[in-house]
Each structure stands twice: as structure tokens, then as C-alpha cells.
């Protein structure tokens, strides 16, 4: 019996639980990893991870090094100029992370403060609405841009950074980090497909709709993120 064809999924290789991380055996686990496997099974493929640095996601997609990007891509106007997107497979709010003990508790406390976020992300778009804050973009050319922002807060090079709440809740369990406040932005995360492959995007969208309709997506969500409300109704 021949092996299934490969579905090459562009993503980054860094720890960001509960979305993705490698287990003790080196296998990619987490909500997004499960979504990829479910989609691959629905489409008749086997997943193959195409690891890239964050900044290289869209060049890799355009060069054909992967079939789509499924890795924390909030659907923004900027990203829609780079690729077409499926319907969302996740919806998250955003939060601001600081060192534990920081006096920052609200947007008003960010006046004159250095606030980091990934460049050209929805998180940076939110940071840019914080009146008086000094926005500090972090490039995605690092092996671990989230880790870079965490370290910058720890070192005092920035006062805070913005990311989606799902990524920050686990970090807030560390003794020196805390979530200052959250913003109910309801960012929609989608799968990015090259604009030249419109029929392929329709196929992926159809597969995703099937996962939502029969409850497989909800089951994965509730396994990895039981503390967050599932955003889709069947």
C-alpha cells in the first residue's frame, strides 16, 4: 500500500504551548498541530512540517516550499495582500505581558513605555492604538521571536509586549512574568494559501468546514485549551 502524499505545512519550530511545541520524542504537539493533522486526514494527506523563521513564511509560501501557512496568522489587511485566507480555525483576544510587579495595569499606564510586538502583526496594530506608547517592532527573522520579546522584558529593554492571550497564559505561570491586562479583540486566525491557488484554498476551506460541522475541531480545542471558550457553533 502506497504512502499518502505529503501536505507541507509552513510553521515555526519554537515552543508556544498550547498551540505547538515538540514533545520528548521530538513530535510536534498542540492545538495547531492537531488542526494540521485533522485537515491532512480530511484531505487525504499526511502532514510534513516545513519549518521556517517567522519572517520567511510568505516568501516560503510564494516559492512553493509549503502548501499553506498554519502558524498563528491573524487575518489582517496587511497579510491579505500577501496571501488568501481560509475561514478562521481559531479566534483569540490579545493581552499585554509585563514583568511581575510592574505598575502597568491598563492602557493609560503605557504612556511613555516601550511596548513590543511582532512587526506587521495584529498585535503590533493593537500596540499602535495605545496612546503615548513607544512601539518596538520585533522582526520574525529569529528562531524564537516570542522568546526574544520575553527576554527583552526580563532584561528591561522593553516594558511590555503584546501577543494573543492563548500564548501568554502559559507564560504567566512563570514566577517573573504577568499579564497586565487583556483586550477583547477577537482576532480571527486563518490558514494562508498562495493567491495563485484559489481552488486549493476552496478545498482547504471545505475540509475545515467539515471539521467544524462534525465536532472534531471543537474536540481538539477543548483538549488543548479547556479554559478558553470554543468560538464556533455547529
UniProtKB/TrEMBL annotation:
Source organism of the structure: Ectopseudomonas oleovorans (Pseudomonas oleovorans)
Keywords for this protein: Signal
Lineage of the organism: Bacteria, Pseudomonadati, Pseudomonadota, Gammaproteobacteria, Pseudomonadales
Family according to the record: Belongs to the bacterial solute-binding protein 3 family.
Signal peptide: none
Superkingdom classification of source: Bacteria
Ranges for domain Solute-binding protein family 3/N-terminal: 6-225
Gene (UniProt): fliY_1
Protein name (record): Cystine ABC transporter substrate-binding protein
